[in-house]
Structure formats: C-alpha cells, structure tokens
Specification:
11 helices, single chain, alpha+beta, Rossmann fold
C-alpha cells in the first residue's frame, strides 16, 4: 500500500489509505472465536462501512486535488470467512444490497497470496493478526477471489513473476482505471464451438446482460447496459474509442441510475441496431478472470470466451476439452457489430 500511494502521489493525486479493518479489531483485542464467526463478520462489516463513509466525506471536502481512496480489503471479503449464503442472509437482514456493496469500489485488485506460487516468501511476520497456515491461506485466498466474481473491474495479480513485477502489474491496473493516461482495454476473444452447459464451472458467477447501443456521431461506440445478478440490477454507460492497435481500445465507463438508463433508452437508443442479450459466467482460471458469454434471442447458439490482459503478448490457457477459435481480430464478433441486423452467428 505504501508503494502504491507513493506512485500515485507522483502524479499529483492525493491518496487516502484505509487500513484493514479486521487487523485493527483483532489487534485492539477483539477475539473472533469468542464472538463467533458470523457476529464478528457482522461487526466488521458495519465498522468497515462506517470507516469508508468517513473517509469518503473527507475526500469530498478535499477539493484542491483528485483524491483516491485505497482500501486494504473490502466488505465483500466477509463472505470468504463466513460463506456466501450466511453472508447474503446477513446483508439482507441488515437491509444492504450485494450489488450496492460491490459497486462501492471502482476497481478490485486481487493480489494472490504468496502461499500460492511463491511459498518460500509466505510469512506471518508482517501481520500479528494473522495465523493461517499456507494451506489455509490458499483456501481463504480462493474464497476471497470468488466473493468478488461479477465485479466489472476485477484484476488478478498472481505470483508468476518476482515481487517487483507483481507490483508493476498492480500499478498498471490502477493506471488504466484512473485514466493515467486514458485507460486501455486489452482483451482477447475466442468462439467456443463445442459448448455445453457442463463447461460452466460450479463457482461461476452468473449475470444477465441487456445491452443497447446509442446513437454515436463519431468513431467508436456508445452504449448502456443493464446487468442483473440474482434479483439486483446495475446500470452502466460506456464509451469505447479506437486506438489503432489491434485488440486495444480506450474505454470510459461509469455507473448510472435506473432513471438515467431509461432516459438514455428513450432519447438516444439507436433503434436500427438489435438489443444484445446474454448470460455472462465469470470465473477464475489459470490466474485470470474469464468471462463466458452465452448469447440469447436472435444470437442464440453463439458462445464467446473473453479474457482481459495486462500485456498484449500475455499467454492465455484454454480449459481442457474446449474447442475454440480465436476471433480477437474478427470484427464480426465485436458486440457492436453483432448488434447489426443479419450479422454472423456461431460458426
């Protein structure tokens, strides 16, 4: 966190760092075993929300610079320690929304524990509130990763390189999200030609996506998207501009309200283009977040695997038994072109 803060401040940003709530509570004398897991996690959640709320008010009052708030852990991490179903029951009882809690954060950078791939560097010496064995650390790391599946900007930084490069990869993910300079999206796509429902991992997070394209006077595209997870919906507005380099685009995106979404549809929807509907299954695999899009309606039968990269030449592993064909550079399979009436479907 110190290195990230120093790096951001070099660019003139003001950085507020919120330390990990669990460590603060345990070091203060709170004993999770005596409180019980669910009671401790509930108190941790409420305290975390209060702390983040106070820091947000401080950030709003600091108007001389752009402010970035770095959170060492987020409130969805509670699910890793108490299980998803008890966690969801808890937030429902507290009148909280899973969707709202997830979108409190603009970017989630998951730094994989050293216990997974860099075991010789795994230590508890830097945090007196931790007592996990390497095996326990790996289990909790996987649960934490799964707790955030479905977040629109979720990056895994694994241990395939040394720590210096691990830090560099984390910083690059921040720079893209903070427009330093324009955020560049690097992604590759594959047709999945032999898809069956058995391909969907049991830990995949499903969301239903409805995407409408808006009238765009210049190059690139404008769209609004409704994403439904369970019974909760979120809405985003996105602009994508070409960079001239294959597989990369400048992307600007922000959350909008339901009323803003409906107004965009009413005033600016390009009715000459079809509505894109699909179910997206998000899951971790081989150190990355994979997104499997299963299209519906007029595009039924089309299944596309998409992986976001940090470097254009990164290697990507394909799950065993999947018959795929890369279509990263095939413009027919861009969502904007799929919205054109009569465009290509699954090969």
């Amino acid at each position: 966190m110190v290195r990230v803060r120093e790096w951001l401040e070099k660019f003139g940003l003001h950085v507020l760092v919120i330390s990990e709530t669990a460590t603060e509570l345990i070091n203060a004398g709170a004993i999770p075993a005596l409180l019980g897991v669910e009671d401790f996690q509930e108190r941790l959640l409420l305290y975390s929300l209060a702390r983040e709320g106070h820091y947000h008010k401080i950030a709003q009052a600091m108007t001389d610079k752009q402010v970035v708030i770095l959170c060492d852990r987020g409130v969805l991490d509670c699910a890793a320690y108490m299980g998803k179903m008890p966690y969801r029951a808890m937030i429902a009882r507290l009148g909280l929304s899973q969707n709202d809690l997830m979108h409190r954060y603009d970017l989630v950078v998951h730094l994989v524990t050293a216990a997974d791939g860099a075991e010789e560097f795994y230590t508890l010496a830097n945090n007196s509130a931790r007592a996990e064995t390497p095996d326990e650390a790996r289990v909790l790391d996987a649960r934490t990763l799964n707790a955030w599946l479905g977040h629109p900007h979720h990056i895994i930084v694994d241990n395939r390189t040394d720590f210096a490069d691990k830090m560099l990869r984390a910083l690059r993910s921040l720079s893209r999200r903070l427009n330093m300079p324009d955020p560049v999206e690097i992604e590759r796509k594959w047709l999945v030609k032999n898809f069956t429902p058995s391909f969907i991992p049991p830990n995949a997070e499903a969301s239903r996506i409805t995407q409408n394209y808006l009238v765009c006077p210049g190059p690139g595209e404008r769209r609004v998207r409704m994403r439904v997870r369970g019974e909760e919906a979120s809405y985003t507005y996105t602009e994508k501009l070409p960079t001239g380099e294959s597989g990369t685009r400048i992307e600007r995106e922000h959350l909008i309200t339901r009323s803003e979404y409906r107004k965009f549809l009413l005033d600016e929807w390009d009715q000459g283009l079809r509505i894109i509907t699909k179910t997206r299954y998000t899951f971790p695999f081989a150190g990355r977040i994979y997104e499997l899009d299963v299209y519906q309606e007029e595009l039924s039968g089309l299944v596309v695997l998409e992986v976001e990269l940090q470097h254009r030449d990164d290697k990507v592993a394909i799950p065993l038994g999947w018959d795929v064909e890369e279509v990263t550079d095939d413009s027919r399979y861009k969502n904007r072109n799929l919205a054109e009436p009569g465009t290509v479907k699954q090969k």
